[in-house]
Design brief:
This protein is an alpha+beta fold and about 210 residues long. It is built from four helices and twelve strands. About 20% of the residues lie in helices and about 45% in strands.
């Protein structure tokens, strides 16, 4: 859990009556991101929000019944996640893209590649994380029909590489990855991010 788990405290507050459920602590091994909600957040922002803000917006609100003001109808709750200071940020974490369909269109895959940050500041997603806690995208597991492939950045050759059952295919830079995903309709399912060493600037990575 020290490698992958983000240790957080979650609080939820009713947006109508401000009733708060008791907070609880848990280890988040991945962050589920529903594609439709991700896209809607982007559209509402007019394309101006930072990738971290869009990710945070996908889970900062949820609908549920409030035991104080609305026991029959669902109301909005604000959800806050705070990093436990004694634990520190993990070396890696994962985004799990939740698709509505098993065969996404090239257009939808293009939207995901546009929204998916190559680097991100964890402090903009989780409270109490130190500013400048930077992570970079290192590997993706993608769905292709009934099969899975892996696309990962290989520092030894300084480019992205596709791995499947039969062969290894160099893809070049990120533009080559986007082109491959859209043309092949490869759906990113699990995206792994690793912490950037403090001595290495994000732009020096890709």
């Amino acid at each position: 859990s020290d490698t992958f788990g983000i240790h957080v405290t979650e609080t939820t507050e009713c947006t109508l009556c401000h009733f708060k459920y008791p907070s609880h602590r848990f280890t988040r091994f991945f962050q589920m991101v529903p594609f439709e909600l991700w896209r809607e957040s982007w559209q509402r922002s007019g394309g101006q929000s930072a990738p971290e803000e869009l990710l945070k917006g996908t889970y900062s609100r949820e609908l549920r019944q409030c035991q104080k003001c609305s026991k029959e109808a669902d109301v909005g709750f604000e959800v806050r996640h705070t990093l436990e200071g004694s634990k520190g940020p993990p070396g890696c974490f994962a985004l799990l893209v939740q698709w509505l369909a098993g065969a996404a269109s090239s257009a939808d895959i293009g939207v995901v590649t546009h929204l998916m940050p190559l680097t991100m500041d964890l402090s903009m997603v989780v409270s109490n994380a130190a500013p400048g806690t930077i992570y970079r995208l290192r590997c993706m597991i993608c769905l292709y029909g009934a099969h899975f492939i892996t696309i990962a950045f290989n520092p030894a050759v300084f480019q992205w590489v596709q791995y499947d059952d039969a062969k290894v295919t160099p893809l070049g830079g990120w533009d080559g990855v986007v082109d491959k995903l859209k043309k092949g309709r490869f759906q990113p399912e699990v995206c792994f991010y690793e912490m950037v060493p403090s001595a290495l600037l994000p732009e020096e990575y890709y």
